[in-house]
Amino acid sequence: MNTPSRLSLQTPAHASSQTPARPSPQLSARPSSQARARLAAAVTAAALVASALAACSPSSDQPPAPPSSADDVTTGVPEEPITLTAAYCDAHPVEDLLDGFTALHPNVTFDKQYEECGNFSTDIINRMSSDSAPDITQYVDSAIQTLAPAGHVLDLGAYVEAYGWADKFPADQLAMLQLSADGKVHGEGAQYGIPGGAAFTGVFFNKDLLDQLGVGGPPSTFAEFEEMLAAAKERGMTPLALGSLDDGGIHLWGGMLASMMGADKAKAWVNGTAGATIAVPEAAEAAAKLAEWSVLGYFPGSANGMKEDDARADFAGRGAVFTVDGSWAVGTVRDGLGVDAGFFGFPGRQASDPASGQGFCAGFAISSRSEKADVAAAFLDYLASPEAAEIAVGLGMLPVNIATAPQPEPGVATELREAYAAAAADGGIVTFFDHATPTMHTELTQGLQGVIAGEVEPQYFVKALQDNWDASKQ
Amino acid sequence: MKAGRRLRKRQWLGLLFVAPALLLYGTFILYPTARTLNLSLWDWDGVNPAVWRGLANYVDVVSDPILRGSIVHALILLVFFALAPVCFGLIMAALLTRHRIRGMAAFRLVYFLPQVLPLIAVGIIFRWIYSPNGTANGLLGWVGISSDRAWLGEWNWALPAIGLIGTWVQSGLCMMLFIAGAGNIHPHLYEAARLDGAGPVREFFAVTLPGLRAEVGLALTVTVISALAAFDLVYITTGGSPGHRTDVPGLVIYQRLVAGDLGHAAALAIVLSCLVAMAAIATSRLSKVEAER
Asked: Domain A70-199+360-416 belongs to what topology?
């Protein structure tokens, strides 16, 4: 290696080996072992395919049939000690309501099975279709849409009759928890759940900032609302706080859609009424408006990368004039803004149109396998009581039945309650749009982010939603 | 005859030896694979009666823009998760092995740290870094580019932003592998190269790179699989947002599973498994060729 040569710059492997790598004696033995391995692989693959094709179609067990009339069920709570299992993901108000029932009936206790909401909707499908189904479950719409047609959720018809629930709960609340036999149409068919509290979206606003704009009180039409956004932008304020990372700003768009399309048509679509469509110019217009607001900078350009919680915190920290959010945000907003916090329902096109909002009720359903369904039904009946309403109000939530519920402390919670009551009276409560089909949440989230980014044409966005809807309702 | 019987007996005995392993393999690999294959031929929500779909789910994997897009994104991530870290690792290895460097252990620790952190933690850290007021925009500000972008929410930047996290995570691993591998290259080769008048670049291509062939193969296998099977990082940073621009197969499989679309989830899972297997075979060839010589 003393004499420099080009050879030594070759790879170490070449430098050390004199003979070509193959064929070597060892390698010549290979084909047979390779062939055997190949044969084994082929046999394995064939076995896999055969077992896949031969295996019977995937299925789950058949649950028992529901009681058919009020005569088949017992109302009231028995004397002996009873434990019911209850599965849920919203610790509040569910745990508070369960505890409230135990306080009235000390012999009835609950095995509380809490699970984080992200996993709950999937997990509850497995659990409700198993032999160890919980007696009571929180009503998760997407899961019940799957479970009810297979008979895993108790048809409450007999209890509705026995307890007279049609008179105890508001009709539109009950309708949200009704499903057709195939699970595809809301608001008709069997009653599968009973509401325990309500959620409602609308516009939170900062009274102090709105005063500074000098544009008067809350808007009564969509056009007025838009003018206020423009005025805020002109003054260098952030008009709307928006975080569209987790769900595409679904509540903002939902408000705009219900306003443009009209609450009735929007309701028909989300409920799955035959022939309903969202592929209409008004819906595309709502999406186009959202894209326009994005370009005009009515909400931060970073919306697509911001979580909803963070946008809410921004608004509560006086960072924006408005935000479209739900009743669950009332605590955060009140803590942040105090007396400056306000709320109004999303304004309609004309002042005569009802202000609207999306909503759903936190409801409960009973397993069709439950042997303690009578006691579980007694708990559902308790949800209509003033005691239950007081618990919901105490937590800053909307009670099921506003008429019988105590008043909240004055402030944004009262404004929320009034807006909700007005929308309920005018037919302005639309079920959350993502309830339309089991996969609508992803479709909406991803599509809206595209609209906000200016990458998805409004009419294609609307068409994709309708395609999803059509595929699901087939 | 006698010999034949003995052979057969020996074969049975052999089977007895592999039985425990076979049982485990069958229970946890073969049976689930068969089930997945079966599921991929049906339209089933997990509860209601299943409807036969045949190969239609596979047709959808190719034709449906969301399902197909996820695979395309995984291939793009290959550049960030596999190619870039291997290049970076090679460069670092070349620089660090040329001279003795004091505090080498500390360097190794720092560069290897991302590999030790759980990807969920990494994801959360980078969510902060990429936020409008985050470090990424801060660094851009230093070089005179003022930005308040939320990088993970940007239509065209979200996927590269996730990719760069992968580069950061995998580079340390590659570097460590290559430094270890370079230690096994005989010093005589370097000496010879220098005597031949090779500069640092020539030395790298003539000695270091060929000598690291096995390590590069291994690094590629590991990183390519991590790119194709990526889930946790994407799940925690964007969840497929914005507008399906960061969907990857693992995430879409999960989403379909959750939405009760088991057929498409299973079909995509089978396709992904095939892709990973193909990639693993292809990259392991690299190191095998080396070993055979």
From this structure: D-Maltodextrin-Binding Protein; domain 2 (3.40.190)
